[in-house]
């Protein structure tokens, strides 16, 4: 159940390459502020401006600018949790992007969820910095809640902190069981927010996602979840997400990100593509949205349009210099799904050849090139790719799959 729950959660959250880029923050003079003492109007305006600039930078993959704005938020309002939550979120997404884990296709298969001997090992300084920011956010919210247990703003940010920590554990450390506890705590707090203030529409973002996830579990796990006290509704979950997209104060784009994954899973690629196109136009520097848009065009049977989008991305000097491996790899995946195997192999070869390619993507490119070559009946060439995989570091279950295909050729699924 843990893997199924987290799998669906992660697929949806990463679906547009942003992973729920931001949480809500009310105006410091807003009625939602609970027991917080109102700040001077000038400070509130500065806080709001910094948040907006930081969030815009984050969506445009400018982590340095986002970090600067969020740090300044903590200076303007050190007793408000928003800055610490945003900084933790920015640190998490920056790592996911640098390690090429901001992609829906990575989370849509079973490979990512294979748990070997334990959690993934990461830079201890990164983990320590992330945890310190979460602790700061929780310390501030706890202090406010001790003064006023009905402080909805503090409850919301406490929920956001737990939700971020769950996402970090699942996507960075691949510690799925440990992520579930924080995810559940986050949802419980969001439900408290709605109970105290039904008009706090932004809280429906997480609640809607939760409703959808629980009702998306396989029948056996869904039954067990209900016995354990967890219930959900896909219909209600989608309605909540759509409400957040239409009426949320600060989370409409976040809701659109999640709806891309939901619509895609529900067989509504036209709506998913509409969301991606909107966000791509709004945040033109976010090449990850471009990659997702191109892949969605392929899945919608519009291969020529998808190919043009991928090609245009590679013409962007910033992308070509810093993320060519990401674009080529996912172009290869789109081609492989469309059963254009020869063209897919060429894209995977570009990943392998590019000097700055991420080592994990290189291993996965060898694996998928082998699969495409097997699909074409070029067994000797496929074997060479699998042997290359086995000489590289194990990425998720790449060694297991390569060894399996060495013994028996890969055969594409029918349909």
Task: Describe the structure concisely.
By secondary structure, the chain is mostly helical. The chain has two domains: 2-283, Serine Threonine Protein Phosphatase 5, Tetratricopeptide repeat (Alpha Horseshoe); 323-415, Tetratricopeptide repeat domain (Serine Threonine Protein Phosphatase 5, Tetratricopeptide repeat).
Can you offer a commentary on this structure?
There is one protein chain. The chain is mostly helical. The protein folds into 2 domains: 2-283, Serine Threonine Protein Phosphatase 5, Tetratricopeptide repeat (Alpha Horseshoe), CATH 1.25.40; 323-415, Tetratricopeptide repeat domain (Serine Threonine Protein Phosphatase 5, Tetratricopeptide repeat, Alpha Horseshoe). Helices cover 71% and strands 0% of the residues. It contains 21 helices and no strands. Helix 4 packs antiparallel against helix 6 (124-147) and helix 15 packs antiparallel against helix 17 (324-337). The longest helix has 24 residues, at 124-147. The protein is globular.
């Amino acid at each position: 159940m843990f893997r199924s729950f987290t799998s669906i959660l992660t697929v949806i959250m990463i679906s547009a390459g942003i992973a729920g880029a931001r949480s809500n923050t009310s105006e410091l003079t807003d009625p939602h502020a609970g027991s917080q003492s109102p700040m001077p109007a000038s400070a509130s305006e500065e806080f709001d401006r910094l948040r907006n600039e930081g969030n815009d930078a984050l969506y445009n993959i400018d982590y340095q600018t986002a970090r600067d704005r969020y740090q300044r938020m903590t200076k303007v309002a050190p007793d408000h949790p928003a800055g610490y939550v945003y900084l933790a979120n920015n640190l998490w997404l920056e790592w996911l992007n640098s390690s090429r884990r901001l992609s829906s296709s990575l989370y849509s298969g079973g490979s990512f969820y294979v748990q070997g001997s334990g959690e993934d090992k990461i830079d201890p300084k990164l983990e320590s910095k992330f945890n310190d920011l979460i602790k700061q956010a929780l310390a501030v919210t706890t202090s406010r809640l001790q003064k006023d247990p009905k402080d909805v703003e503090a409850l919301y940010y406490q929920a956001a902190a737990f939700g971020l920590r769950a996402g970090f554990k699942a996507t960075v450390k691949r510690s799925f069981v440990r992520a579930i506890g924080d995810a559940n705590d986050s949802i419980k707090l969001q439900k408290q927010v709605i109970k105290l203030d039904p008009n706090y529409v932004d809280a429906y973002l997480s609640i809607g996602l939760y409703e959808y996830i629980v009702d998306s579990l396989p029948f056996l796990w869904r039954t067990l979840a209900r016995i354990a006290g967890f219930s959900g509704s896909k219909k209600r979950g989608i309605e909540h997400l759509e409400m957040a997209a239409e009426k949320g104060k600060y989370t409409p784009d976040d809701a659109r990100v999640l709806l891309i994954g939901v619509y895609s899973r529900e067989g509504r690629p036209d709506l998913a593509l509409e969301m991606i196109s909107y966000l791509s136009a709004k945040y033109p520097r976010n090449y990850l949205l471009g990659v997702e848009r191109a892949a969605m065009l392929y899945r919608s049977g519009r291969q020529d349009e998808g190919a043009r989008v991928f090609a245009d991305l590679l013409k962007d000097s910033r992308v070509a210099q810093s993320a060519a491996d990401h674009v080529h790899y996912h172009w290869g995946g789109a081609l492989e799904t469309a059963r254009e195997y020869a063209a897919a192999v060429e894209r995977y070869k570009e990943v392998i050849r590019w000097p700055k390619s991420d080592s994990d993507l290189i291993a996965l490119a060898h694996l998928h090139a082998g699969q495409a070559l097997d699909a074409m009946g070029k067994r000797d060439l496929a074997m060479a790719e699998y042997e290359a995989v086995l000489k590289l570091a194990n990425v998720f279950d790449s060694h297991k799959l390569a060894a399996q295909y060495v013994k028996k050729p890969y055969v594409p699924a029918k349909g």
